[in-house]
Amino acid sequence: MAADNDGEYCEYHEILYETPDKSGKWMQFYPVDEIDVKWERAKDLYRTGKLKGIYAIKRGIKCPRTSPTLQKYFQPLFFYCGPAYKEEEIMQYGKDLLKEMPYHKADTGHMLYKTDEQSETGTRWTGQERNYRYKIKTTPANFDPNPSTNTTDMFIDESNDEIISKYNDELNVGKWIQYYAWHNIDAAWENAKKLYRERELEGIVFMKVSTRLGGKKKVMPMGIICFYCGPVDSKEEVERYGHNLIQKTKYSSRDGFMCYQYKYNYNDTPPSSPWLYRIETI
């Protein structure tokens, strides 16, 4: 077995087609007790020509340079296609792949595509701010849109490609966070989605809401809705978005404030306070 950047070793390697230059791969991660069945399914689809655009598949035996949880409980499958710069083709290959290999991972809600160059530079766990080039939103077969009862996703997200495309630097964002009791969060989330879809939430690039699954894992007595916006270092702009958010959602909190949190790299020293900005609520 040869050493591989995607797994400490590549346990299996199927190549039937010519390898394009500047390639990459769609990635799927499965629990160790499911990986054998998924790999057999992938091989069968690949060998019978049903994975359009996929020129190679791999199964890794480990997930190095990732979180301890991912390393211990999951194993990866890689579906190679390229050239990586042909976005439209790569996205179509990914969508076709999901039709044949339905996939959903609760903590991300997306299937990610990483270029070979990105594989060389590491992962978010080793300090890379962004370790993928493309992503496709996935949905479980039994998807529950209500965060208070959803037990298949840690978060439910709401995004719009047109809105995201107008924001050039998705790495330079933080999030305003609103807290809701579980019996109120479904209505709050529906209202937030309505406002976002009607373009009422100025500056908000995308949103997420925690679910019962996420709440249980983090022992959270309340659910949270995260409203992502930036740039992080523009206090005036971010606070303007926050004030509009409070007005539109009619948000109030126990301590009288809504806080803005920013992201930092895994290798960075955690900040003394996770809150970058704080504004008064209704």
Structure notes:
There is one protein chain. By secondary structure, the chain is of the alpha+beta class. It is built from 8 helices and 12 strands. The protein has helices spanning 35-47, 68-73, 87-100, 116-121, 161-165, 182-197, 212-217, 235-249; strands at 10-15, 24-31, 56-60, 74-81, 110-115, 134-137, 155-159, 174-180, 206-210, 223-229, 257-262, 275-280. The protein has a 6-stranded antiparallel beta sheet. It is elongated and about 60 Å long. The N and C termini lie far apart (61 Å).
What's a concise summary of this model?
This protein is α+β, with helices and mostly antiparallel strands. Helix content is 29%, strand content 26%.
Order of strands in the sheet with most strands: 1-3-4-2-5-6
Rg over CA atoms: 20 Å
Structural class category = alpha+beta
In percent terms, what proportion of residues is strand? 25-35%
Separation of the first and last Cα atoms: 61 Å
Unreliable stretches covering 5 or more consecutive residues = 1-11
Strand count: 12
What share of the residues lie within helices?
A: 25-40%
Q: What's the shape? A: elongated
Mean pLDDT: 82
Order of helices and strands: EEHEHEHEHEEHEHEHEHEE
| Discrete helix count | 8
The main sheet comes to:
6 strands, antiparallel
Sequence-ordered SSE layout with sheet pairings:
Blueprint: E1 10-15, E2 24-31, H1 35-47, E3 56-60, H2 68-73, E4 74-81, H3 87-100, E5 110-115, H4 116-121, E6 134-137, E7 155-159, H5 161-165, E8 174-180, H6 182-197, E9 206-210, H7 212-217, E10 223-229, H8 235-249, E11 257-262, E12 275-280
